Amino acid sequence: MLSIKKLSAYSTFKKGIMIPSLVFILSVTFVSSVFPNRTATLLGRVQDWIFVNMNWMYVWSVTFFVIFLFFLVFSKYGSIKLGDNHAEPEHSFFSWISMLFAAGMGIGLMYFGVAEPISHFSDQTFRPLNDITRAKNAQLYTFFHWGIHAWAIYGVVGLSLAYFTYRFKLPLSLRNCFYPILKNKVNGIGGDVIDTFALCSTFFGITTTLGFGVVQLNAGLVQVGVLGGSGFGYQVAIVSVIMAIAILSTTSGLNKGIKFLSQLNIIIAVAFMLFIIIVGPTVFLLGSFSEGIGYYINQFFNLTFNTYAYEPETQPWFFNWTILYWAWWISWAPYVGLFIARISRGRTIREFIGAVLIIPTAFNFLWMTVFGNSATWVDRNVTHGALSRMADNADELLFLFLSHFPVPAISSAVAILIIFIFFVTSADSGMFVMNSIATKNAAKSPKWQLVFWGVLLALLALVLLNAGGLQSLQTMTLITALPFSIIMLLFCYSLIQGLIIDNNYYGRALSPATSYWSGEFWKDRLQRILSFKSKEAVADFMLQTVQPALNELADEFNSRGIAAVVTTRERPMEVALTIKHALIEDFVYGVRNQSKVISDFLVNEENVPGAAGNNTYIPKTFFGDNRTGYNVESFTKKEIIADVLKQYERFIELSSEVKNELFTDNTSKRP
C-alpha cells in the first residue's frame, strides 16, 4: 500500500483522464474476454449497420480531409511554421520520415503487402473480369487504400495538434485542437472526455495490432523452424520479448531508442524490397509501377467519391475493404497524429503536408507494387492459383509467397526481423503517446509510467488473444471511428480559424501615425550605415543608447502604475523591457547583440567602406510573441523610445480584439 502511495505521489497522470480510461479499458477487456462470441455478434451488427447506412459519411469526411490539406499547401498559410517564426526542425528529415512512417502503418505493409492484392485479385466479386484486369484493379484498390487518403486522415490530426501546440504554445493534447471554439473550457470536463477517448482508442488500436500481429510472427517463426508450434505458450513468449524491447526503447527516450529502431527498420525494409525487385520479375515490376501510378491518378476522383450505389453486388466488397480501411485509419488517427505532431516541430505547414502525404504514399505504392504485383504474377504464371487459394490465411501468405523466390529461409528470416522491429516501434511510440495523453503532455514523467503502459498492453493483448476477444475489440474500435470523423471535421474548422487569426496577427502593419525616423541627425545615421560594427561597438551602443531609453520608459510606465522592468544579459548581450500581465501575454521589447555574416562581394567592394572580415554585429530587436526582429543600429535614444511605444500601441490594439484571444490569452498556457 505504501509503495502505491509513493508511486501516486511521483506520478504525472491526470486523474480526470486516467481513471475513466482505465475503467473503460478494463471493462471492455473483461466483457470481450468473458463473452467473446456474444460481444462479437452484437458489435458486428452495429458495425454492419454503420457501414451500410453511414458509409457516405466516411466517404465525404475522408474526401474533405484530402481537399482541405491540398488547399492549405497552395494557400498563403502554407509558409506558416509549426512553432516560432525562427524555429528549426528538431529532427533530421530522414529521422522524421522514418519515425512517422514506422508509427503510421509500417507493420501493415508486412501484413497486407501480399495479402491485400491477392485478396482483391481472387475476390468473387471480380471473377467475371479477365486476369489482367483483375491484377490491375488489385494494384489500383491497394494504392487507393494505402495512399493519399489514408495519410490525409493522419495529417489532419497531426497538423492540428502540431499547430496549436507549437504555434500557440498549448499543451500537446487533442482537447486543445478545439481551443478556437471552446477557449478555456478545453481545460474542463469536455477536454477530459476528448483525451479519454483518444487514450482508449490508442490503447485498443495497439492492443489489437499486437494481438493479431503476433499470430503472423508466430507463423513465420514456425515457417523458418525457430518455433515448433503456434500454441498460446509460444505467443506469450513472443509478446514478452517484443514488449521488453519496446519498454527499453521508449524509456531510453524519443531521440534514442525510437529514432534508432525506426531508422534501422526502414533501411532493412528497403533492402528487403530491393531483393524482391532483383530476384523477381524486375521488368514487369518497374513497368507496372509506372502504369499503376498513372491508373491511380486517372481513377483518383472516381475512387474518391464512389459509393457503388448503382452496383449493389459490389457494395459488400466496398464495405469490407474501403469503408473498413477509412474507419481503421480514423480510429488510429489520435495515436499516429499525436506521434507525428510530437516529432514535427519547426516544419512549415507546406513541408509537413507535402512530406506526410507524398513521401509515405510513394513508398507505399512502390512496396505494394513490388510485393503485391509479384504475388499476382507468381499466382498467374507459377503456382496457377495457389496463392489465391490462401487469400483467407494472411498470417502465412507472405511466407508462402517468399518460398517461390531464392533463399526462402533467409528472406523469411529478414521478413520476421522487419515485422518484429515494426511491432516494437509501434508499441514503443504507442506507450510514449499514451503517457503523453494521460499526463496532458507533462514535461517530464517517471519512467515507471512508460513501463506501466507496456505491461498493461502485453497483459490485455494476451488475455484477449487467449479468450478470442480481439475481434470484438477491433470491431468496437472501428465503430468509434464514426464519431471521431465528426471531431476531425471540427479540428479542420478550428485550424482554419487559428490560421486566419495567425495571418492577421503577424501581418498587421505598424501604426501609420508613427515612423522609424524623421530625418533628423541624418549625417550620424549615414555614418552608422556605412560602417561595419564590432561586437564591442554594438555592446557599447546598447549600453549607451538602448538601455537608457528602456530605463527612461520603464520609469515612466512605473510612475503611471504599470509595472515595467528592464533586464540585461551578457551572453549574448541583450537588453529587454518587460511588462508582465496575468491574463494576457507579457509585452516584451528587447534588443540583442547578434552576429551577421557579410557577403564576400560586399567585403571586397571598393565603392563601400571595407570590413575587416566576413562577420559584423548588429543590435536586433526581439519580441515576446517571437515575431521577426529588425536592425536598430541607426536609431537614436528618442527613436528607440518611439519604436517601443509604437510596438506597445500595436500590442494593446491587438490584445483588445476578441478574435486575437488565441494569441494573447495567457491563462490556458499555464502548466
TrEMBL record:
The organism's place on the tree of life at top rank: Bacteria
Residues that span the membrane, as ranges: 16-35, 55-74, 94-114, 143-166, 193-212, 232-254, 266-297, 317-340, 352-377, 397-424, 450-470, 476-496
InterPro entries assigned to the protein according to its UniProt record, in alphabetical order: BCCT_CS, BCCT_transptr
Keywords for this protein: Cell membrane, Membrane, Transmembrane, Transmembrane helix, Transport
Membrane topology: Multi-pass membrane protein
PROSITE patterns recorded: BCCT (PS01303)
Subcellular location: Cell membrane
NCBIfam families (alphabetical): bcct
Family listed: Belongs to the BCCT transporter (TC 2.A.15) family.
Protein known as: BCCT family transporter
Upper taxonomic lineage: Bacteria, Pseudomonadati, Bacteroidota, Sphingobacteriia, Sphingobacteriales
